[in-house]
Amino acid sequence: MVESEKQETKKKSKRKYYLLLIILLLLIISVGYSLVSSNILINGTTNIRRSEWNVHFSSINVTSGSELTVIPPTLNDKGTIINFSINLDKVDDVYELVAEVYNEGTIDAKVTSCTKLGLSQEQEQYVNYSITYLDGSAINEGDILRAGDKVKVKVRVNYIQLLPINEADLTDLYETVNLAFRVDYIQN
């Protein structure tokens, strides 16, 4: 039995040796990893400001010579739609107004659409109704209006003559035309 005890003791000492070796290797790997890796510490301050969405028409000016108004242009309660009524009595009658769009908020705005409301299909044949920027360039989807900026848009309605004239369609034109438009924006 002495011999078996000796072998048992040898096995225990080998196990202790391997265990000690494994612990030592883990310790070396840990120390090596900590020496190779690095930590970055960033200190700083930031200011978070309140965000506000507020894009609306801020002013409307009827162009001189546009005396066709039955109801002058008015804004809806949110300032996002302009309504007006006009009479177009003869070929080449023109009504024009300039409206200012103001991004009074803190977030940049992007155009999603420009909508003209109020003309019937018959009236569209004899009335040219356009909305552009003041310089005449088109209002395009994706145009940006930066926070705090203003841009002027021009609305022009004119009675054009197309041949042949269908007298039945013209009867609608002699009535008051109730029009409205809006330029829709989303956050950029």
Write the layout of secondary structure elements.
Elements lengths: L1 H35 L18 E8 L6 E7 L6 E5 L7 E10 L5 E9 L3 H4 L2 E7 L10 E2 L4 E10 L7 H7 L3 E11 L1
Antiparallel strand pairs: 1-4, 2-3, 3-9, 4-8, 5-7, 5-9, 6-8
Report on the structure:
This protein is an alpha+beta fold and 188 residues long. It has 2 domains: 1-44; 55-187. Helix content is 24%, strand content 37%. The chain contains 3 helices and 9 strands, in the order αβββββαβββαβ. A 5-stranded antiparallel β-sheet has the order 2-3-9-5-7, with no helix packed on it. Strands 1-4-8-6 form a 4-stranded antiparallel β-sheet, with no helix packed on it. The longest helix has 35 residues, at 2-36. It is rod-shaped. The mean pLDDT is 83.
Short description:
This protein is α+β, with helices and mostly antiparallel strands. It contains three helices and nine strands; from the N terminus they run H-E-E-E-E-E-H-E-E-E-H-E. The protein is rod-shaped, with a radius of gyration of 38 Å.
